[in-house]
Amino acid sequence: MFKRRLAAVAVGALLASSLVACGDSGSSGDDAKTLTYWASNQSTSLEKDAEILKPELAKFEKQTGIKVKLEVVPWSDLLNRLLAAATSGQGPDVVNIGNTWSASLQATDAFVQFDDKTLDKIGGKSRFVPAALAAAGAEGKPPTAVPIYSLAYALYYNKKMFAAAGIQNPPTTWEELVADGKKLTKDGKWGLAIEGAHTSENSHHAFAFSEQYGGQWFDASGKPTFATKENATAIKRYIDFIGTDKITNPGNAEYAQNQSVADFASGKAGMLLWQAVGSQLELRKMNPDDWGVAPVPFLQSPPANGKKVNSMVAGINIAIFKHSKNQEGALNFVKFMTSDEEQTILNKTYGSLPSITTVGKDPAFAKPEQKTIQDTLATSAAPLPQVASESQFETLVGGLMKDLFAEAAKGKSPSVDEIQDKLKTAQDQVK
Amino acid sequence: MTTTVSAPDEAPPAPAEKPPKRRRRPTLPYLLLIPAIVLELAVHVIPMLTGIWMSLRELTQFHIRDWSGAPFIGLDNYKVSLDFNSATGKELLHSFWITVAYTALVVALCWAIGLMAAVLLQRPFRGRAILRTLFLTPYALPVYAAVITWSFLLQRDTGALNHVLVDQLHLVNDRPFWLIGGNSFYSLVLTMVWKQWPFAFLCLMAGLQSVPQDLYEAAYMDGAGFWRRLRAVTLPMLRPVNQVLLLVLFLWTFNDFNTPYVLFGKSAPDQADLISIHIYESSFVTWNFGLGSAMSVCLLVFLSIVSGLYLFFTRKARADA
Q1: In terms of domains, do A238 and A106 share one?
Q2: What's this model's pTM, rounded to 2 decimal places?
Q3: Rounded to a whole number, what is the distance in Å from the CA of B275 to chain A's nearest CA?
Q4: What is the CATH number of the domain that holds A194?
Q5: ipTM of the predicted structure?
Q6: Which part of the chain is the ABC transmembrane type-1 domain (chain B) (predicted)?
Q7: The CATH number of the domain where B290 resides is what?
């Protein structure tokens, strides 16, 4: 008897581990008078986001009589919850998605397509900034979402520290950035803060650097081309800020929760590569006069096939689930969220840029930070490859960079060949 | 678990003579079993069968919405998982060996610490109750809260561990990393042992209660010292407890998901890439649920074989003894 109980315990423990079941999901509005909306976390906390969005949703209810049930979802849970909702056919009507996931999510066929007819109902295709709309689905297919907040990477620098080190202008090339970084690195302060254990951010930098070195992560048919010399060199450039140049605190290798923003705000590091971090710096009590914004640097002498790209087209999209029983209302809600008024209000609050062409002239978007982001988006940003396995690129390449940073932090600078080997292993795992 | 619920003994034991004509068994016990069976099906059997079914399909993001219609690909997922020349197979094998080392270390340490604590706390002394409560604290804490606290303690620049090691004791000059790189493996072992050993302690303490005192007295009279008594009396008497304890510790540790997930997040360092996290990544992060299911089934088969062999040999050993 005892043995049998033991066996049962054993089997129970085994089975629990083999569960491949999906999580819980919210319930969708059953009638034409309600909608459920999952908003992504844009502000400093989930509560703060709810506080920002609630009055706008009340406005929508007043206009249309449709009540919107709001849930703000943290980034770490969002993709899993979207997948669960897609699998079960149950969940919210309208959701926010990170634009880099667009093509991956598009492949699930769980979202309403924004073909020309659908786009016409929310003001037409020409209403949206082309680069932002390009990052909303695979090329040649109707987008799976429409953009609502646009972002790009910029170089943030501490003006006081620059002045103290005798640096006149922010760097425009990586070589200058390293030289400046060395001048700033002293007395426990460092040149550049990095979020080394943050896999998605790592992959964003891998993308932009690779473009400058003339590399690419996927070929035209969507097959991964990770293991190239260009990609390995690009990753090495980024890792070397810790490994060889020593302008980044080795401790940054374990940062994954925006500690690099905190380091920059408190003056522990003189430079930071980030997307629209101004409102966060304000919340961290950094004096607005102390920091400046410049475009992300380029290579001094790029190879012949190098591209003038210094940021991904970053941003947040809004999508409608096909399973929604209130398609009409959901589309109305998307129209509302992309209206001139809401785009101005929300993007002003979040420090991001509108993704529609009609409100860019508002003075709120002409501040130096927003201006830099706008210029980057208009001239030197490119969307991450819109292929179905993009989310695998983020995890696998971002993850191996985390391991490389860990090595670099111990003083071992990886060679291009070593990186290429690791990229090969990652590439072979992409399905 | 529920499968072991036995029907109540049949009413008044019949006299030892010729058994009477077989009576109809009462239906009530079976009715009472139904909820348990339904739950067992819902919680264990059906998901397991679904998992096996999924492992035979190409269940990627292209088919996830209509997942029951995912194309059947036979054993392809298994071939990919177990082809140790391919990247996927190599990585799976890599995390398998890490998990083996992790499990061996954690189980051995939990058992040894648990045994020592149980033996030392056997005799009454002042403060015993307090110590006992203190020892059980890690077991009573919610896993998430406990592990997240460890992740704070183990931070390189702001964590308490480095503060003590580097700033106060000056044992090492260079601040070591605990959550990335090679040390992450030991951080994982440390956290898991801290969390798990009280369970061993609890079981062994209960086991020790049943050891008759006169055995110790006799051993003492024979002049046996502490180690001798431990070896000759305590360990043999604890054998039944140990058999179960080691198996349960092994299974829990091998399957452990919470500790690495909370400590490292979605992407564990290469040196601490436990198999449960690896399977999670294969299915949820790279969106290949078929492959993930195939790996889960392989793990299930492996653990079943190990547990089966373990039960067979321990039973044999007991029968031989």
Answers
A1: no
A2: 0.84
A3: 11
A4: 3.40.190.10
A5: 0.80
A6: 96-310
A7: 1.10.3720.10
